[in-house]
Amino acid sequence: MANVIIIDKNDKFLDLAEKLLLSDDSYTVVKSKTAEKLSLSKKLVEEHEPQLIIVGPSYKESESIGFVESVSSNFPTIGLIWIINEMDTSVMLNGLRSGYKDIVLIDDLDNILGMINNIAKKDVKLKDAILNGKNQNDNKDDDDDNDNHDGKMVSVFSTKGGVGKTFIATNLTVALAKESGKKVILVDLDLNFGDIGVFFNLDPKRTIGDIVSTFDRLDKEMLQSYFTKHTSGASILLSPVQPEASEKITSEHIQKILKLLRTMADYVIVDTPPTLSDTTLAVLDESDEIYLVATMDIPSIKNAKVSLQTMKLLGYEEDKIKLILNRSDSKVSLKPKEIEKTLNKKIISFIPSDRLAPQTINEGTSVVTAQPRSNMAKSLIKLMEGVKNIAGNRKQEKVLKEKVNVNK
Ligand SMILES: Nc1ncnc2c1ncn2[C@@H]1O[C@H](COP(=O)(O)OP(=O)(O)O)[C@@H](O)[C@H]1O
Ligand SMILES: [Mg+2]
C-alpha cells in the first residue's frame, strides 16, 4: 500500500483528489486542509511517513517550492507532486528543479493515477508500495502499456504550399488510428504556420513550443503531457500558436523529440512546412518514408523535381521517397504518365479533387470518417495501407550536416 498525503486549502480539491486516488485500492489517503502556512504540514509528514505527497494548487509558487525543498532534504525518499492551475513553463521548470517529481495541470487531474505510475517506474520504493496493493493482472496490464514501441515514421512533404500536405497527414492519421487501433501520433512540424489545430478544431493548450524550456529533462512521460488527444484516438503534438515561439526550436530538438516519439507509438505521422530548412531536414532524416506531394501544375512538378534531386544529394535511398499525386483528376493538359517520366518516379497514390476536402476541414472533421465511401476517402485509406506495410527494420540514414540550398 502506498500512503499518500494530499494538502490544499480547498475542501473540494481535497475530496476530488482523494476520490481519484481511492478508485485504485493500492492507496491510502490522508487529507490535510492546511489553510495557513504549507510548512506547518511537515509534522503530518513525520507522523504518516507517506510515499507520496500531493500539493494542491492553492498556494503561492514560492510557498510550494519552499515546501518541496524542505521535505526533500529531510525525507529524500518521499515523492512530491504539485498540482497547478494553469500551464506556465517557467513555473513548471522551477518546480521540477526544486524537487517535484511531476507537475500536473488541474485540468489533467483525472490522469493522476497514470502520472503516479509513471513516477513509480523510476522509484523502486514507491513502485513496491503500489504493487503490494495490486493483483497480478493489474501489473500485467501496466507492463503491456509500458512496452517500448519501434514506430514507423512517415513525413508528408513538399516545398510548395497548398498542395495538400496537411490534408493528407490529418486523414492518414485518422484512418490509421481508427482502422488499426494502434497508437498513432501526429506531429505538426510546420512550426510557423502549422494549422493542424485548426483542421481538427483543437484547443492548443500545450504545443511543441513549450517543450523547449524543459528540454534538458525531456522523457517519454513528459512528452506525453504535451499531446492533445483527438477523437480518433490519435495523439497530436501541435505547433506553437505564436510563430515567434518556433524560433527557439532547433534541428537537435526535433531529432530528439522524433526519436522519443518513435518509441511511444506504432505510427508517427509528421506534417512539414513548405521549406527545406534544417529542422525539416532533421524530419526527413528521421523518417522511414517521405511522402512527397505534388499537384498537376508545372510549379509543383518543378518543386518536386528539385526536392528529389536534393534528397538524392543527401544520400536518401530511392525507395524511401514515395510520390503522391493530389488532385490527380484535375482537368489540365498534364498527364500523370508525363509527370512520372519527368520525375523519374512512380506515383504510388492518386488522390482525386473533391470539395469534400475543404468541406471536412471547415467542419473540423476528416474525409475518411465523414465520407468513408467516397473515392477520395478510398484513395486515402489505400495510402494508409501502404503505411502499415512499411518494413520494420529501417536503415538509418546518414545525417548530412551540409547546408543545402534549394532554389524555389
Ligand atoms: N484533393 C483535394 N481536393 C480538393 N481540395 C483539396 C485537396 N487537397 C487539398 N485541398 C485543399 O487545398 C487547400 C490546401 O491544403 P493543405 O493541406 O492545407 O495544403 P498544404 O499543407 O500543403 O499547404 C485546403 O484548403 C484543402 O481543402
Ligand atoms: Mg500545411
Task: Describe this protein's structure.
This protein has 18 helices and 13 strands. The protein has 408 residues and is of the alpha/beta class. It has two domains: 2-145, Response regulator (Rossmann fold), CATH 3.40.50.2300; 152-388, P-loop containing nucleotide triphosphate hydrolases (Rossmann fold, 3-Layer(aba) Sandwich). It has an eight-stranded mixed β-sheet with strand order 8-9-7-10-6-11-12-13, with helices on both faces. A five-stranded parallel β-sheet has the order 2-1-3-4-5, with helices on both faces. The chain binds adenosine-5'-diphosphate and magnesium ion. The site of magnesium ion has 4 residues, from helix 8.
Topology at a glance:
Layout: E1 2-8, H1 11-22, E2 27-33, H2 42-48, E3 52-55, H3 61-74, E4 79-84, H4 89-98, E5 102-105, H5 112-122, H6 124-132, H7 136-145, E6 152-157, H8 165-180, E7 184-188, H9 196-199, H10 208-211, H11 220-224, E8 228-229, E9 235-237, H12 251-262, E10 267-271, H13 278-286, E11 289-294, H14 298-313, E12 321-326, H15 336-343, E13 347-351, H16 356-362, H17 367-370, H18 375-388
Parallel strand pairs: 1-2, 1-3, 3-4, 4-5, 6-10, 6-11, 7-9, 7-10, 11-12, 12-13
Antiparallel strand pairs: 8-9
Helix pairs in contact: 3-4, 5-6, 8-18, 12-13
Bound molecules: adenosine-5'-diphosphate and magnesium ion.
The site of magnesium ion has 4 residues, from helix 8.
